[in-house]
Amino acid sequence: MKFRQTLFWDVDPKTIDPDKNAVYIIERILDFGHDEEVRWMWQYYDHALIKQVLDKSRVLFPQTRSFWNLIFTT
Q1: Residue 10 CA to chain centroid, in angstroms?
Q2: CA 72 to chain centre
Q3: What does each C-alpha distance from 43 to 34, 36, 54, 63 come to in angstroms?
Q4: Which of 9, 30, 34, 70 has the most Cβ atoms closer than 10 angstroms to its Cβ?
């Protein structure tokens, strides 16, 4: 997947490795991702990893955490 510059404004998106930078990518997509990026994340990463990031991340917005917790419980 080609990442948007606006999603990763603080780094060069071309240097992001989806496996090595999984937590960083998941956090950004959960907070700021478009539908296409969320679908890609959902298919690419194990759902347990996404849930782990959701539970342990210290950078997610509280509203983001609340929204995604609702998604994971349904």
Answers
A1: 15
A2: 14
A3: 14, 11, 16, 23
A4: 30
